[in-house]
Structures are given as C-alpha cells and as structure tokens.
C-alpha cells in the first residue's frame, strides 16, 4: 500500500557499537530509484510509568540529563533489559527509581519519540494502587522523586518547565483518562 514511499536497503551495517546505543549507517534506494545514505540509532526500547497515588497526585522525578546539561522533570522511565517484557520493565523501573510498587497496571500506548534517527519506542503504562518502599537506584543513578497534582504537572507542561516529550505525552493521556474521554490500551 505504501510502496511509493518505501526506501530499500542496499547495504550497510554497524558504524558504532556503544555500551547502550548502536549507530548504523546504511545505503538505501529512495522511491524514485536514487541512492542515498541513512544513519540511525538502534535502541532496545524503553518504558514510561504514569504513577498515580491514591490521593490523585502523580509521582515525578528530577534528574540531570548530560546531553542537555540540566535537570529535567520527568515521569519514571528506563530502558528494557534483554528478554524483559515491557510490563516487567515498567514494574522494575518504578521500584528502582521511586521505591514504589503498584497493584494495578494498565498499558496506555506506544510512542516513537525520534523517528527521523532512531528505532526507539516507549511503552507507557498507568500504575495505580501504589505502595511506598525504598528506591533501588542503579549505581551512578541520582534521582529525586516528588508527588504533584495533575494540574501542577499540566501547568509545568504549559509553562515549559516540563519539556520532556514522554512526560508531556503521559500528562496529556492522564488528563484524558481522568476526564473519562480516553481509555488506556
């Protein structure tokens, strides 16, 4: 159906094999038959958690992000480990980063956050029935956790205090879910 838009790989392969990311460099044929190059990042996939406390507040994190040299406000998230399902990864990441576990998990959606240069996708989950516990941060991971109202989170999106795309999408989904306009999954 979309053959008139498809690009076809001629050759290529791994250009950089990093600890976390793998950069590929391929030659492709464009729909008009002309060759060109494509560079892209292979990513193992990640999960995002929208953790909602019984009082309606949302757990957010503050974390320094080196590429942009600043602290960001984000929903808890992290990459999936090899062989791990998205839900298993979400449960692990929530507990590692915040110390919380959840009794109610709902898949919300999958997003592709960097389609021009990466195959990364993030599976977003809504987590409720939260129980507090101690965080289990990875070595070298430094995160502050805070609980805020949905209104505060949306105000931070509107004001530009929250610019992280996964958190913005999670906030918009949560607003729609709480209003009864959208259903998870």
TrEMBL record:
Coiled-coil region list: none
GO biological process terms held by the UniProt record: nucleoside phosphate metabolic process; ribose phosphate metabolic process
Keyword terms: Hydrolase
Domain of life: Bacteria
Residues that span the membrane, as ranges: none
Cofactor(s) named in the record: Mg(2+)
InterPro entries, per database record: NUDIX_hydrolase-like_dom_sf (IPR015797), NUDIX_hydrolase_CS (IPR020084), NUDIX_hydrolase_dom (IPR000086)
Positions of the Nudix hydrolase domain: 41-170
Annotated Gene Ontology cellular component terms: cytosol
Reactions this protein catalyses: GDP-alpha-D-mannose + H2O = alpha-D-mannose 1-phosphate + GMP + 2 H(+)
Single GO MF descriptor: hydrolase activity
Family statement: Belongs to the Nudix hydrolase family. NudK subfamily.
Protein name: GDP-mannose pyrophosphatase
Source organism of this protein record: Pseudoduganella aquatica
